[in-house]
Amino acid sequence: MEKKMISIAALLGMVAIILGAFGAHALKKVLSLEQLNIFETGVKYQMYHALFLLFTGTSHLISENAKRAILNLVVIGVLFFSGSIYLLATDDLTTFDFRIIGFVTPIGGAFLIAAWFLCLYHSVKKSAGKN
Question: pTM (2 decimals)?
Fold first, then answer.
């Protein structure tokens, strides 16, 4: 599980850097400042959660089952949260109205919060069991 989590963390981090550079350079010419800020929010949260997976994957306080659940929650959360933000921020560039998928953003956020909760719960539970 450790290898899988670290690999996915690296992939999410790499894609966040690519999208951040794309936003800062290519999208800067076609999006408003507000849209760029929204896009950047998606990049930030994606990177935060790449680092979160990196930490979680190497932690010995969290069981393999909990790591698996956290990984699934983060991947789905990033896809829904950051993915929908990327689409919403660039909505003006396409003929499709991505605002109809706006409800996905808070669902993704809930998945990310649940991942952090599991990390907290299992690390405290493991720490309490050692006393």
Answer: 0.88
